[in-house]
Here is the input.
Amino acid sequence: MNHRGGWALIRRTWASWMQYRGFFFLLAFGWMIPPLVYLFVWSTAAGGATVGGFSRGEFVAYYLVLILVNQLTYAQTNWIVGDVIRGGGMSQWLLYPLAPAYHVLSSELAGKVVYMIFVVPVTAVLAITLKPELHASLADVLAFVPALIFAWMLRFLWGYWLALLAFWSTRADALLAVQDALVFLLAGQVAPVALLPGVLGSAAEMLPFRYMVGFPVEVLTGQVSGTELATGFALQVGWLAVALGLTWILWRRGVRHYAAVGG
Amino acid sequence: MRAYATLIGQFIRASVQQELAYRANFLISLMHSLLNAATGVLGVAVLFGQVETVRGWDLGATLAVLGVYLTVGALRDLVISPSLDALAGMDGEVWTGRLDFTLLRPVDIQFLASVRHWRPFALVDLVIGIGVLVAAAARLDAAPGPGDLGAFLVAFGAGLLALYAVLLAFIGLTFWSPGFLFSWVFSGLFQMARYPVGLYPGWMRLALTWVVPVGIITTVPAQALAGDVGPGLLAGSVIAAVGLFAGATALFRAGLRRYASASS
Here is the structure.
């Protein structure tokens, strides 16, 4: 494997993304708003008391961490994969002496850096004005780091295998929109998963979406511990294995199926 | 006047013919619309599964705000956004200089820029939005009487005019900074209109009512439906909407005078 070439590609992509940072700041701004809406709505609902065990400050802490985690795990690159397959750009990717995954990874990393330059200061200002209550122990922080990394890998690979369906169907990115809606509803944005009622709540705990965003946030804000933490990690890693398997199979069969268009 | 009506008819016909070529898109946009409405309604339902009321807003009234949000958004997607967005951004008419050809047409440019492109698929959103609105009206404590409906229609019209004015003003700014997508900033802030402005903290409530007039666009019409709007607030939002429209028109025309074409 040519890792030095891959690193060069990552640096090049990052430099080109920084040129358009105004555009990407605008995108990041738009993505911040939905969790912000729920931050305000829930913290107003809590008022001086608690709702579902959350006080006003705890809601603020939960959603501020969620804004960061959501931005860090959001795999916007997957939208490009479909375009690249449909437009024939995949031919070029396949000709590079690099694993094609490097192209996707490089814009992933570039994106993360550019978006964070915008999101981190804004979140810091919000944290100063809104006074969150975060009681994270050292154990929470230590569990948060792997939970976040797995969450990113899961969200990325889950979107990647969906995007790879573009090898067979031109409108596969409709599925990415469905995934975004499910993440919005079930991953802890509309409400912390613990507050979702009945069937919705139990579905959210089993399905992979909570483990893409909500789970690391819950870990850092100290909502899960003991056996819940262990089950959570087991489900997260399990879904990650499923996503890896599907990506592997679809990539191998897809590339064989692929025929470029153009001329 | 007749000529303008005929023109609108022709624009609609051309847009429909264009979109009918993409039939598979219909199913996909139907799915998007249903997902969008479903996540919105479930979000409200989850909130009121935990609490009875928030600052005087209950399930019915909050759902009414969501219904207005979806309906106004559908009307925006039907004609305002497709038409105005053709001017903005890096491949927009102001940046590329294609506005030359638009300016040469013997009709009022603001009219042309506002109604040129239609997106018939948005009618699906319109149906869903009105459906949510009707469902919300049925859940209100007091069923809306004819007076409430009248006030609602006035407030809704004022809200729509305010939305159009804000979008037009942002397009006007495009003449100063052609590449910047001002309307994206507004689209981001507009998502806050899903919930009543009363649910936001104090300093934001004022800004969201009078600066970015999200409150006038969705909260006031929903309040009118519930019979909670006095004549003062109704008149205030109409005056604000008309004022915004006049200001936006002036800004757009001032921008137009700055336009100096472009070429490669």
User: Anything to note?
Assistant: The two ends of chain B are 38 Å apart (CA to CA). Chain B has a mean pLDDT of 86. Chain B has one domain: 2-258.
